[in-house]
TrEMBL record:
Source organism of the structure: Mangrovibacterium diazotrophicum
Protein name stated in the entry: Iron only hydrogenase large subunit-like protein
Keywords: 4Fe-4S, Iron, Iron-sulfur, Metal-binding
PROSITE patterns in the cross-refs: 4FE4S, 4FE4S_FER_1, 4FE4S_FER_2
Domain 4Fe-4S ferredoxin-type: 9-38, 40-67
Amino acid sequence: MTTAVPTYHALKVDAQKCIGCTHCMTSCPTEAIRIRNGLAVIEQKRCVDCGRCMRKCPAKAIFVEQDDLDKIKSFKYRVVLFPSVMIGQFPENYSEDQIYAALLKIGFTHVYEVEQPIGFLKESIRESCKKDKDHRPHISTFCPSIVRLIRIRYPSLAENLIHCKAPHDLGAHFALEQLMAQGANRDEIGLFYVTPCIAKMSAVKSPLGEKESIVNGIINMNELYNKVRKNISTKEAPDTSDQRATLTRDGILWSLTRGEARHFGERSMAIDGIHNVVKFLERLENEEVPDIDFLELRACDQSCAGGNLLSGNRFLTSERLERRAKRYQPAIKFKNHPIQEMAATLKPKLALDAIKPNPVFILDQDREKALEKMSKMQRIICFLPGIDCGACGAPNCQALAEDMVNQKAKMSDCVFLQQTWQEENKISTSKALKNMEKKWGKDRFKADCNKRGRRNEGF
């Protein structure tokens, strides 16, 4: 009997900083967060690593676990792989050569933007869609948060996911083939991907549709951006344009909204922002969407330009990338380029195994028990106030009722019911207070003028 390997999640909660304010809980699109003993607790099975909770946390208590940059020192050839969206972070007074030179100064030996040569990935996606005519619309696997969301919440749509890897895999295989062709051994090459979002961290550590990622380490883009800014020179840098020889206009725009959708089918759609995606997938699952060929779904607003590990403004980043893309040729111009000789080697490596559904939004695996729990839930909801205040530690009354039937919460967690029971002398005031302390922590109800927004904040 094999034991399932738990899915890696990069998001963690710092118990010393968390104030149990519920901002994270109410913003989570998968209702993965509860407040227990005054602290936010992330239910790993429901988390899709979209990072909404980290953005909303006023105490900066939610953080990401990441690899140490010193890890690159273990390799002779240290390859930095990054999406073009990283270049869009820098003000335009810095040239591409200056940014590349700063990355080399930090300690990398080779610099690759992952979207080159994007033409191979486009062809692989077209071939994958052509083979599978039964499951339309075809849904892109570019955004790992969306892939995880579909697996756990919309399992009937898992078959619509395209069996193709993401651009960082393309960039990694491309760099690896080039270096090995120059005589480097595989174990001498370290591939480090600079990610604009938390979900891609988890996708590298716990890939779906493949046994393990080709990437050796993952780097927070925000952290690397700050290091590059410290090391960048305003003087003229050596010409590094040969390292971008196969970068195309299509590749630079790939990570922006409609970067993929514009290439696949007359009826293609691009949706960004995870709450927008959730609403659309509900319509799609209920067969309320007209005939669509291709869906590009991204968790962040403005796609990767709005990634949660970026430091720049997402609108400025998009505008810079669009301006930059105009200086490059479209991918179609590379049809007779010598790079095409690598197509036979690279394209098979972009194939992804089928991604199996993993539904967690069900009350029970046993249908009969699930129906019993549903009936019980409906009866419980009759007694709850239905105002979704979150004071019970669950994001809404429906979620509290679900927790109750799964033995994770009690009726006394609802403050309104407790108040009613006190009025009816069914529960003492001291018992009611103890229940509240259990949920929110013992010192929660004491005056504290040093908390955020209070009189002595900052002292």
